[in-house]
Amino acid sequence: MNTLFRPTALSMLAALFLSPAFAVDKSPESVPEANAKVEELAAGLDHPWSLAFLPGQQAALITERSGQLRLWRANKGLSKPLAGLPKVWVAGQAGLWDVRLAPDFASSRRVYLSFAQQGDKGQANAALGYGRLAEDDSGLKDFKTIFVQQPALSSGINLGGRLAFDLQGNIFMSTGDNNQRMSAQRLDSLKGKILRLTPEGGIPQDNPLVNKPAAKGEIWTYGNRNVQGLAINPWSHALWETEHGPRGGDEVNLPQAGKNYGWPLATYGINYSGQPIPEAKGTHLNGAEDPLYYWPVSPALSGMAFYNASKFPQWDHSLFIGALAGRSLIRLTLQGNKIIAEERLLSERNERIREVRLGEDGYIYVLTDESNGKLLKVAPGA
Asked: What is the pTM of this model?
């Protein structure tokens, strides 16, 4: 597994579907399709990116990549764009990304947003901030930007932007490599990383690289290409992530403090040109972590949600992941930290799935990344 990876076509990648971390006995072509019941709750969203349910209500905040935050209510539909948002830089993949409620939202009403903002030279910076949701839900008050990625990014691709809270109330935030591959391996760079920040955007003093010379203290993991899903496993309380490979090699990882996840020195993917990744040494790198699970042909993984509700026992201990290029909802069956089965849902709709969330009612909710984006409610089929 340490030899240079030189496939000549994507069909050859199926032969490499044996991960050092976990062996899978089927290729993507053999993944079964599953029936699902789907209810369309809202439409007309402009490339929606993320949603966060308001506790105890049939209501959710929804971000649109073009810079708007909307409120959906079960009995009222979609609101007009809410007031009080920061100025967002929109270009390519850059825009308004994730929305997450603070763990103490019931008392603080604090709403966190990740987004791109324009730097001094017209380039993008990935940013994080929060505001307080007004009592009448009309907008965010006193929005404050608490973290800005430096230096400025060079383009609007591979930007990351996912958020998750740990059990201590600190914030994980993903940053992409911005197509500057080796920056993911540099500890003095915030590109190609998962960061861990305090609720005010500072550096937690128990972060793994705080006392390492020339390293950025915000770093939780490195060697990440473009993490597009973050979630806390409700059974182990560990952080999980989904990550875009290049052409092939999308991954599920368990990002642990201070660990290297290999990109671009180790990958199961190839360049978009069909040639090997120039820096790659193979599919495995000594001193780096292997993926828990990977796809030889990229579904373009996006948001993710664990299923720990009692509503549908057949979905117990599942991980749901959206697929953009794969235009489906992926369900992975878990056994501890092992993935023992995979199936696809919603493929017949032929829509890009950007976000996946578990509702308080036990249903799965997804957003479709389209110019006429939709909010869908999903249940198992017959």
From this structure: 0.92
For 40, phi then psi, to 5°, come to: -85, 115
Beta-bridged to residue 307, according to DSSP, are 318
Q: Which residue, chain included where needed, has tokens 């000549």?
A: 8
What are the φ/ψ torsions at residue 314 (nearest 5 degrees)? Answer: -70, -15
pLDDT (tens digit per residue) in 262-296: 999 999 999 999 999 999 999 999 999 999 999 99
For residue 44, the surrounding DSSP H or E stretch is strand 36-45
The CA distance from 177 to 198, in Å, is: 22
pLDDT at position 180, please? 95
d(CA 204, CA 32): 43
Quick one: which of 87, 71, 250, 100 has its CA closest to 169? 100
CA distance 82 to 213: 43
> Up-side HSE of residue 306: CA atoms within 13 Å toward CB?
19
Question: Length of the chain in residues, anyone?
Answer: 382
Q: Say which amino acid occupies 364.
A: I
- Per-residue DSSP letter, 18: B
* Rounded CA separation 185/180 (Å): 10
Nearest-angstrom CA–CA distance, 53 and 360: 8
**Which parts of the chain have pLDDT scores under 50?**
1-28
Cα dist from 200 to 36, 102, 259, whole Å: 41, 11, 24
